[in-house]
Amino acid sequence: MAKNDHINQQILQELTRDGRISNLELADRVGLSPSACLRRVQDLEQKGVITGYRAVLDRDAMGTGFVTYIGVGLGEHTKAAQRAFEQAMQEATEVVECHNITGTIEYLLRIECADLPSYKRFHTDILGTSPYVTAITTYVVMGSPKDLRN
Q1: What is the 3-state secondary structure of 91-142?
Q2: How far separated are the first and last CA of the chain, in Å rounded?
Q3: Which of 82, 83, 132, 145 has the lowest tally of Cβ within 10 angstroms?
Q4: Helix (H) or strand (E) holding 70
Q5: What is the pLDDT of residues 117-132, one digit of tens each?
Q6: What gap in Å lies between CA 124 and CA 112, rounded to an integer?
Q7: Are residues 64 and 136 in contact, defined by beta-carbon separation less than 8 angstroms?
Q8: What single DSSP character describes residue 75?
Q9: Full-model pTM
């Protein structure tokens, strides 16, 4: 792993805020020369600390502004049941996050779709047809006062 010093932390914080920042601007913000800054960024990439860069999308502009989190309980706790459920979630375009968690349920999903009727279709046609799903609890996102992905 790359050294985790104060300057690397600043670099990561700035890149998290703006992955398209120029190396010149990044170097200025963290107090390094451009060449030293570039070496550090490349080292962080090479060591796997930075695994990629992505675009942040406006879900409303894309027509997928209806967001829910769903807790899903499975009736069978076998590897086959988990694999089948996870494969179904991989194929469902509405699922943008699928986490296997501990506690009273097995999975936490983040769903993004156009509206309540499209969510209902996902709920009925995808989750409702899975032979392993025995519990579904939906939490509709009313707002996101803090979301570091944006």
Answers
A1: HCCCEEEEEECCCCCCEEEEEEECCHHHHHHHHHHCHHHCCCEEEEEEEECC
A2: 27
A3: 145
A4: strand 66-74
A5: 999 999 999 999 999 9
A6: 15
A7: no
A8: S
A9: 0.82
Place of tokens 């009727």: 117
Q: Which residues contact 113 (CB under 8 A, 6 or more apart)?
A: 64, 66, 94, 119, 122
How many Cβ atoms from other residues are within 10 Å of residue 81's Cβ? 17
Residues 6+ apart with CB under 8 A from 25: none
Contact at 8 Å (CB) between 64 and 70?
Answer: no
User: For residue range 80-116, what is the model confidence (pLDDT) as tens digits?
Assistant: 999 999 999 999 999 999 999 999 999 999 999 999 9
In angstroms, the CA 86 to CA 90 distance is 6
